[in-house]
Automatic annotation (TrEMBL):
<keyword id="KW-0521">NADP</keyword>
<keyword id="KW-0511">Multifunctional enzyme</keyword>
<keyword id="KW-0560">Oxidoreductase</keyword>
<dbReference type="GO" id="GO:0000105">
    <property type="term" value="P:L-histidine biosynthetic process"/>
</dbReference>
<dbReference type="Pfam" id="PF02882">
    <property type="entry name" value="THF_DHG_CYH_C"/>
</dbReference>
<dbReference type="InterPro" id="IPR020630">
    <property type="entry name" value="THF_DH/CycHdrlase_cat_dom"/>
</dbReference>
<dbReference type="InterPro" id="IPR020631">
    <property type="entry name" value="THF_DH/CycHdrlase_NAD-bd_dom"/>
</dbReference>
<feature type="domain" description="Tetrahydrofolate dehydrogenase/cyclohydrolase catalytic">
    <location>
        <begin position="10"/>
        <end position="122"/>
    </location>
</feature>
<keyword id="KW-0486">Methionine biosynthesis</keyword>
<keyword id="KW-0554">One-carbon metabolism</keyword>
<dbReference type="GO" id="GO:0035999">
    <property type="term" value="P:tetrahydrofolate interconversion"/>
</dbReference>
<dbReference type="GO" id="GO:0004488">
    <property type="term" value="F:methylenetetrahydrofolate dehydrogenase (NADP+) activity"/>
</dbReference>
<keyword id="KW-0368">Histidine biosynthesis</keyword>
<keyword id="KW-0378">Hydrolase</keyword>
<keyword id="KW-0028">Amino-acid biosynthesis</keyword>
<dbReference type="GO" id="GO:0009086">
    <property type="term" value="P:methionine biosynthetic process"/>
</dbReference>
<protein>
    <submittedName>
        <fullName>Bifunctional protein FolD</fullName>
    </submittedName>
</protein>
Length: 287
C-alpha cells in the first residue's frame, strides 16, 4: 500500500506557475493577476477552502481578494456584494462565487453563475458548461482538472485503462467523465445511491477508482484491490471535527494499492487548478 505524495507534485506545479507569472508580467509590463472571491455565510468547510485559496494564490503572485458577507445579508448588501462586478475595477477580472450558498440564497445560484466563460475560472457557469461539453474553449471545473492532471502525472499513459467514478456532480463526476473519456479511458460512473456491496463487487475490474461519496471511512483499505489507484475526493468531517476521506486505512491494510490522502490530496489539486485557471484567464487561455 502506498500513500501518494500529492504535495510534492503540487509544490512543483506552483513553482512553474510562479515562474510563468513572473515572466508574463515582465514581458507584458502588467501588474500581477487579480482575482476576486465572493462569499456569503460562514460554512466551516467553505471557510477552510477559501483560506487555502487565498494563501496559495497569493504565494504564486496572484492578487486575490475576498468579498464576504454573513448569512444575515439583506437585499442592499447582496447588491453591494455581487454588483461590485459591474464597477470598472472588476469588469475584466476573473472571479468566483464560493458555493454552496446558505439555503435562503440557493435560488441565486444560477444567476450568480451566469458569468461570461472568459472570466469563469471555476468553470461552473452556464456558458462555461455549454462550451465545455461541446468541446469549445473554456475553463475546466477545478477539481476535475486537478484529478485528470494528477492522473496523467503519475501514469504515463491513461489510454485503454479503466476508471470507476463514484460521483455524478457538476463539480466532479460529470466533467471528470468527459475528461477521462477524452484520454481514451474506459469510464464507468456510479454514485452514492448504488448499494455499497454492488460497488465492491466490481472494484477489481478497474485500474482507478475515484470516490466522491462524502461519508467518512465509507470504504476500508481491505476493500481496495491489488494494483488499483484510489483517488479520494470525499472530503468530510467526522463527529470529532476531523477532516476525513471516503477511504479509511484500517489495521488490516489490505492489498498493494495506491491512494491519495485526506487532507493534502484532492483538495490541494483543486486549488492548484484554480491557480492555473486564473493565470490563463488573465494572460489568455493559450499562454
Amino acid at each position: 500500500m502506498e500513500k501518494l505524495d500529492v504535495m510534492e507534485y503540487v509544490a512543483k506545479e506552483y513553482e512553474k506557475i510562479a515562474n510563468k507569472i513572473s515572466i508574463l508580467s515582465s514581458e507584458n509590463k502588467q501588474n500581477k493577476p487579480f482575482f476576486a472571491i465572493f462569499q456569503i455565510g460562514n460554512d466551516p468547510a467553505s471557510n477552510k477552502y477559501v483560506a487555502n485559496k487565498l494563501k496559495k494564490l497569493d504565494s504564486v503572485g496572484i492578487d486575490v481578494r475576498l468579498f464576504k458577507r454573513g448569512e444575515k445579508t439583506d437585499e442592499i448588501s447582496l447588491y453591494d456584494l455581487f454588483c461590485k462586478k459591474s464597477d470598472l475595477e472588476f469588469e475584466e477580472v476573473p472571479y468566483m462565487v464560493q458555493l454552496p450558498l446558505p439555503k435562503e440564497y440557493e435560488e441565486l445560484t444560477n444567476s450568480l453563475t451566469s458569468i461570461s466563460w472568459e472570466l469563469d475560472v471555476d468553470g461552473l457557469g452556464i456558458s462555461s458548461k455549454e462550451r465545455f461539453y461541446t468541446n469549445q474553449k473554456s475553463f475546466i471545473p477545478c477539481t476535475a482538472r486537478g484529478i485528470r492532471d494528477y492522473m496523467k502525472y503519475i501514469d504515463s499513459s491513461l489510454e485503454g485503462k479503466s476508471v470507476l467514478i463514484i460521483n455524478r456532480s457538476d463539480l466532479v463526476g460529470k466533467p471528470l467523465q468527459k475528461l477521462l473519456l477524452d484520454e481514451n479511458m474506459l469510464v464507468s460512473v456510479a454514485h452514492s445511491k448504488i448499494p455499497k456491496e454492488k460497488l465492491l463487487d466490481v472494484f477489481d475490474k478497474y485500474d482507478y477508482i475515484v470516490s466522491g461519496i462524502g461519508i467518512p471511512g465509507y470504504f476500508k483499505s481491505e476493500d481496495i484491490p491489488k494494483g488499483c489507484t484510489f483517488i479520494d475526493v470525499g472530503i468530510s468531517f467526522n463527529d470529532k471535527g476531523k477532516m476525513c476521506g471516503d477511504l479509511e486505512i484500517t489495521e488490516n491494510k489490505g492489498d498493494d494499492f495506491k491512494y491519495t490522502p485526506v487532507p493534502n490530496g484532492v483538495g490541494q489539486l483543486t486549488v492548484l487548478s484554480l491557480a492555473k485557471n486564473v493565470m490563463e484567464a488573465y494572460y489568455g487561455i493559450n499562454n
